[in-house]
Specification:
alpha/beta; single chain; 427 residues; Rossmann fold; seven-stranded parallel sheet
Length: 427
């Protein structure tokens, strides 16, 4: 059945602009749904290339809940769990679905995250795994109760072997006030200067900028800790325990990014650092709770710097990643490579190997002294007004464009597609 609002679209080029007032972050103007789905399909194919597990016992790989599983580390974690370890996965994320009634091209086709979910789940089902999504605001207690009710109904008799918390929301409902609050990437205590690049302008190559970022307010700090900290994770675990949905030996993993000395003013020493410290502390506390309740465990995981949909919107991160790619080259891990290594080296058939702070350090390769020393040398050498290497700029932008479905092999970007057809979900 073709919807009355269906249309033919062609999206030949990734559209974006730099926003100087926000720290020269990159604001994406569009995405390609077919490209986004193909990229997700290729991620599953990579993981399954060695032969996806044939699981005779349907419960063998366990049942895992991924909160924030529609992009970045979350989608990579569910692919790794399914392909390498035979797990069934449920994703909870709050992604814009296609709106066939809209006259706006982007709203009509939804969001990259929605299309990523559709493609991942379609491919995992082909491999014999159960993979479903629930669209829900993870911060909303009513939505959380609805997800828990659906778990009982959809998986009678089964319990969750693990929960991966990979939520990186810019905002969330605070049920204490009934208002939505936002997280802020701002320095703590004093303003900071960040170094970044801007795009080419005609014959002018990309250039280096230094921009001041004002310090965050106490109110912004409180909001950031709520959105990015551990309180909502704690609420999920409490409710899942009360619902008797956690299996013996349940594993909770909270995934985030600590950053390096070069981006510390906005990360570890900034408002987000307060939130990350809260998340790490809460995770350690929940490990004790899970141990007593179900002989379970919890670990905070520090991931490496990777390109995701959010990467272009964080001041200074595009420059950091562009240089990191060039220095690490084949040693750099994307989200899938990192998550596969994490599960293989620290879980399932291996024992976790946390550091002295009880953290699983998947940023270990990025933080090697020789890597950070070379990064620091290159950062110091770049001065405001300098031209930035066009090859490094293009490489980062190509990687960022892929998160929006552009530059993916096998996609004809000049061809028109039917908006109804590309948004169809197979039962």
């Amino acid at each position: 059945m073709v919807h009355a609002g269906a249309m033919k679209l062609a999206l030949p080029k990734f559209q974006f602009r730099f926003m100087r007032a926000a720290g020269n972050v990159i604001f994406p103007g569009n995405f390609h749904p077919i490209g986004t789905q193909r990229e997700a399909e290729q991620m599953v194919a990579r993981a399954a290339a060695g032969g996806s597990r044939t699981v005779e016992d349907p419960d063998d790989g366990g049942l895992w809940l991924i909160v924030g599983g529609s992009g970045g580390f979350g989608s990579a974690a569910r692919v790794a769990l399914a392909c390498d370890h035979g797990a069934d996965t449920i994703n909870v994320s709050f992604d814009a679905a296609p709106n066939p009634e809209s006259s706006n091209k982007v709203r009509k086709i939804g969001s990259p995250a929605w299309h990523r979910n559709v493609a991942i789940e379609r491919e995992l089902r082909k491999l014999g795994r159960t993979a479903i999504s629930r669209t829900a605001d993870a911060f909303d207690p009513v939505a959380r109760a609805s997800v828990i009710e659906s778990l009982h109904a959809r998986f009678p008799g089964r319990k969750l072997n693990g929960l991966v918390w990979a939520l990186a929301a810019p905002r969330g409902l605070d049920p204490r006030t009934g208002k939505t609050v936002s997280s802020m990437l701002k320095p703590l205590g004093q303003s900071a200067t960040i170094k970044t690049f801007g795009g080419p302008d005609g014959d002018t190559p990309p250039q280096i900028f230094e921009l001041a970022v004002a310090k965050g307010t106490p109110e912004e700090a409180v909001s950031t800790v709520w959105v990015m900290g551990g309180r909502v994770v704690e609420a999920w675990i409490e409710d899942l325990l009360e619902a008797d949905l956690l299996a013996p030996g349940h594993t909770l993993l909270t995934i985030s990014y600590r950053g390096s000395p070069l981006n510390a003013p906005l990360y570890r020493d900034g408002l987000i650092g307060l939130a990350k410290a809260d998340l790490e502390f809460t995770t350690r506390a929940l490990s004790s709770v899970l141990l007593r309740a179900v002989e379970g465990r919890a670990f905070a995981v520090e991931g490496p710097a990777v390109v995701t949909e959010a990467s272009g919107g964080i001041p200074g991160v595009p420059l950091y990643l562009a240089l990191l790619f060039d220095i690490m080259r084949e040693r750099h891990e994307d989200p899938l490579t990192s998550m596969r290594r994490m599960f293989n080296e620290h879980f399932f058939d291996a024992e976790p190997k946390p550091d002295a702070d009880k953290l699983i350090r998947m940023d270990d390769r990025e933080l090697q002294p020789e890597i950070q020393d070379e990064l620091a040398r290159r950062f110091e050498a770049l001065k405001p007004g300098d031209s930035f290497d066009r090859g490094l700029y293009d490489r980062f932008m190509a990687a960022y464009a892929r998160t929006r479905g552009f530059g993916v092999e096998g996609v004809d970007y000049e061809a028109e597609f039917d908006t109804d057809e590309v948004c169809r979900v197979d039962d």
